[in-house]
Amino acid sequence: MRVALLSPCFWPEVRRGGERFVRELADALIDRGHEPRLITSHPGRPTRTVEDGLPILRLPRPPAARLGRRRYEDYPTHAPLSYLALRRGDDDVAQAVHTFDALAAARWAERTGRPSVFSYMGIPDHAGLMARRKRLEVTVAATRRCSATVALSTAARDAFHRWLGVEAHVIAPPVDVRAFTPDPAARAEQPTIVCAADPNELRKRVGLLREAFARVRREHPSARLILDGRARGGEGIEPRPLDDRAALAAAYREAWVSALPSTGEAFGLVLAEAMACGTPVVATDEGGMREVVNEPETGRLFAGDDPAALAGALLEVIDLARDPATSAACRARAEDFSAERCANRYLDLYASLA
User: Fold this and answer.
1) How far apart are the first and last CA of the chain?
2) Which CATH class is domain 184-335?
């Protein structure tokens, strides 16, 4: 099957959850003998490459700084070129991970009679839909025109039904359980917490984690906190480049706990990736994260915005990490979200739409 994947940006320019979703789904499709390709954009001339078996077309992205300053939806300018690239191809299905790409895929589907899929990377609740100008209108149009909309969790699916009246499929994002693997010998001697979230994104609440970590240090003075390299350092806090998948996996193996104190997460891919490395997790008790961390053997959830509550969960999971059975329980849970299972679900969906 020829699958056109559409994303507004890709590695190495951006390495967020959406970009990892595209890469890992593509890898799983390639492993099964299918032929995915990626249509994306960048601030430069058109390029065609093949990266680890995936053909990638990077189209020019016209400047959008003025639109960004006016709080319009992100990445609005490249979609017409993505649509033209679709028209010139011979794909069986087009799958987008961003609203404007989804509109391009929907228009292509309407012209060709072939299916389009919109894999929505967030939770379409009121706050999220109103965070950017025209986001609501574009999301409504994309979900109504695409052949199918996919949510990352039941929480995201329920938000689609509540706020937009859309019946979405649920397919969890893929976790590369071959790249993210346990290594007990790599664990640090002192209690170590890792948080791979973007420290500059307010909803990730890295500031709350820093406050909680100060409380953890009262009981474990040697404890360390590894943050994304864009964060500032501090006592026991080590900013480290975590964009590279190998570097991220190494940090998970080193850590005793992986923390994600975010709000508005449709799934929390970094939680499942950490568990694939045998590392238990702490997450906010909301959204899709409560579906990932659904057993006490793999981590803890905390509620609210009290640093004491987060610190208490971190301390519990530090103790949990000492249990030899914890690593195996975390690994088993992560395998529920393997890229192989994700690809099989999407192949079933493509077949049903065709």
Assistant:
1) 11
2) alpha beta
CA triple 72-74-76, angle to 5 deg: 85
* Cα(9)–Cα(12) distance, integer angstroms: 9
Q: With H, G, I as helix, E, B as strand and everything else as coil, classify residue 50.
A: strand
The dihedral region occupied by 256, where left means phi > 0, alpha psi between -120 and 50, and beta the remainder, is alpha
257 to 119, 168, 191, 275, 302: CA distances (angstroms): 29, 33, 8, 10, 14
Q: What is the pLDDT of residue 115?
A: 98
For 2-174+338-353, CATH number out of 3.10.105.10, 3.40.50.2000, 3.40.50.1820, 3.40.50.300 equals: 3.40.50.2000
User: Among residues 39, 44, 111, which one has the least CA distance to residue 81?
Assistant: 39
List pLDDT tens digits, range 61-120: 988 888 778 888 888 899 999 999 999 999 999 999 999 999 999 999 999 999 999 999
- For the chain, which residues make up each domain, given as ranges? 2-174+338-353, 184-335
Please give the Cα distance from 154 to 171 (Å, whole number). 9
CATH topology match: 2-174+338-353 vs 184-335: yes
Distance set, CA 94 to CA 73, 89, 103, 107, 202 (Å) = 21, 11, 11, 10, 32
Q: For residues 271 and 151, give the distance between their C-alpha atoms in angstroms, rounded to a whole number.
A: 17
Span 172-226, pLDDT tens digits: 999 999 999 999 999 999 999 999 999 999 999 999 999 999 999 999 999 999 9
Q: How confident is the model at residue 131 (pLDDT cuts 50, 70, 90)?
A: confident
Could you tell me which residues come within 8 angstroms of residue 250 by beta carbon, excluding any fewer than 6 positions away? 186
Question: CA gyration radius for the chain?
Answer: 20
> 3-class SS at 29?
helix
**How many helical (H) and strand (E) elements, i.e. helices and strands, does the chain have?**
14, 14
